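User: quick one, sequence for these tokens?
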């Protein structure tokens, strides 16, 4: 599964709670949205680290050749 697909699925899983909070005013859903956003932040950071590692390995491979 690609990282992009993972992010899309993660965002899609948030939809119900977003609707419950923003359209219906459900406070519990707001708490879940905050938790979901934290999960998204962690996932984004993991992807950023992975990208940096891949770039570094490619740079080392170019320099070592």
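Assistant:
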């Amino acid at each position: 599964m690609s990282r992009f697909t993972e992010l899309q699925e993660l965002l899609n899983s948030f939809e119900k709670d977003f609707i419950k909070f923003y359209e219906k005013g459900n406070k519990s859903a707001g708490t879940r949205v905050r938790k979901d956003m934290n999960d998204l932040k962690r996932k984004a950071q993991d992807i950023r680290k992975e990208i940096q590692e891949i770039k570094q390995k490619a740079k080392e491979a170019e320099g070592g050749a």
